[in-house]
Amino acid sequence: MKHIIGGNPIAPSSAVQPQVKSLSIDADEAGQRLDNYLMRQLKGVPKTHIYRIIRSGEVRINKGRASAETRLNDGDVVRLPPVRVSERATEKAQVMAQLAASQGSNHAPARDFVVLFEDDLLLAINKPAGVAVHGGSGVSFGVIEQLRMARPQAQFLELVHRLDRETSGILLVAKKRSALKNLQDQFRERETGKTYLALVSGQWPANKKVLDKPLHKYLLPDGERRVKVVTKDDPDGMPSLTLVKVRALSPVAPDAGGTKRAFSLLEVTIKTGRTHQIRVHLASEGMPILGDDKYGDFEYNKMLARTTQGVALKRMFLHAWRFQCRHPATGAALILQADLPDELAQFAAQVLPQSV
């Protein structure tokens, strides 16, 4: 069964009486949860109804009952009961798909990004700062939606991992479900290597190489998400491990505001992928990332952004610089690198002349 993802028109189904269907799972579909698979197959059917037919046993895998969390395997046969999609829901889906295809600028405008690596399974791009990786939480579209619009022929494009909106650098996109599953397994087993470049205010101690501090997510009164360091015995703390290596240090000298200050350019490797992990870990040491609008020195950030002496810093200095994994098909080592964007390289050269 062919699946079209990313703004292609959905074939009408309301004219056909619903019937029992048997769908065979192929290698590209294997590894996903049953509920997620059904949501793709049954567009226009409410999620509550999808979960109801799973719980009732009407959906079967290889003639047996299954739960929503069941992972599909290559060769599985999924039985779908007769499900009627309302004509109104079908028409709405068609209209939205056609609008997305013909008026992409009003939804997710097509956009090409700098490609670091690409083959039949995997796409690695250099994400610019200020662009979300996907739509949601007040953002109408992100990288993945723009890529799908730019590549309408692509049958499968899914994010392998995420980067904060303010962070630039290497972002992986799977072009087949088998590659997505393989790479996500590597992330889960901590077999990948992700190293960032971060610039902080202060002289980072060369002997402080490991930050092993649990993190806890919480919400501000306005609903915005934040993360904080908690004690190791906190039941809500998630184990979080960050490795820090000093790439360059500046001597203590007056900054643009006349305050004596030093800077450290750090290579930061994360062994766990917690939300805002690097930002919170570095800030917890009293050396937040320059330009960080959530955990940084807000007054100093404002001064850096409006300075007229030299290069201003108008964004967070955090860049996904290097990535290592095994190729999902061959198992060969794959090492990617994205150099600092110009605005960060120029600022670093200004405060750390020998660093970049």
Structure at a glance:
The protein has helices spanning 34-41, 47-55, 87-102, 143-150, 177-188, 277-284, 298-306, 342-351, and strands at residues 21-24, 60-61, 64-65, 77-80, 114-118, 122-127, 158-159, 168-174, 193-201, 210-212, 215-219, 225-229, 241-249, 253-254, 260-261, 263-270, 318-326, 333-337.
Structure in words:
The protein has three domains: 21-98, Structural Genomics Hypothetical 15.5 Kd Protein In mrcA-pckA Intergenic Region, Chain A (Roll); 107-177, Pseudouridine synthase I, catalytic domain, N-terminal subdomain (Alpha-Beta Plaits), CATH 3.30.70; 192-351, Pseudouridine synthase (2-Layer Sandwich), CATH 3.30.2350. The chain starts with 20 loop residues before the first strand and ends in a 5-residue tail after the last helix. The strands form four sheets. Strands 5, 6, 7, 8, 9, 10, 13, 16, 17 and 18 form a ten-stranded mixed sheet that branches. The model is unreliable at 1-16 and 92-106 (pLDDT under 50). A hairpin with a 3-residue loop joins β5 (114-118) and β6. It has helices at residues 34-41, 47-55, 87-102, 143-150, 177-188, 277-284, 298-306, 342-351, and strands spanning 21-24, 60-61, 64-65, 77-80, 114-118, 122-127, 158-159, 168-174, 193-201, 210-212, 215-219, 225-229, 241-249, 253-254, 260-261, 263-270, 318-326, 333-337. By secondary structure, it is an alpha+beta fold.
